[in-house]
Amino acid sequence: MKFTRKASANWRGTGKEGSGNISTESTVLNNAQLSYKTRFEDGIGTNPEELIAAAHAGCFTMQLSFLISEAGFTPENLDTVAHVQFEDGSINLITLELSGAIPGISNEEFEQLAQKAKEICPISKLLDTEIHLVTTLQELS
């Protein structure tokens, strides 16, 4: 399978006083605000690190779902929160916090599949940084 996705960004002004926007081909993001405040402070809008976190959480969780299904289980729920750490001009750490509810799976198999998903997810492979994984398997009643 081969495909291309695209997004665009526009910026006007200096790095600190300027502002811009980001749009995606799907229009999920359509001129979403981007500024110094949205990236380095608490401004309204988005930023590259938040978008990387969203992309990584989505890619990893979908990859894990495929692996769990291939192992013969059906996930009831998978929740992933990706924390992207920016320090001294670099993204130096991503922590994936995973919680899953999967009938019949052992904690050991869940952790093994999650680790494999972390390693083979296309976004994980793209990122040149340390990636931590924290898993929680929920007990089903």
From TrEMBL:
A GO molecular-function annotation: peroxidase activity
Biological-process GO terms, alphabetical: response to oxidative stress
Protein name (record): OsmC family peroxiredoxin
Pfam families: OsmC
Ranges for region Disordered: 1-24
InterPro entries associated with the record: KH_dom-like_a/b, OsmC/Ohr_fam, OsmC/Ohrsf, OsmC_Ohr_Peroxiredoxin, Peroxiredoxin_OsmC
Regions crossing the membrane: none
Organism of derivation: Pedobacter puniceum
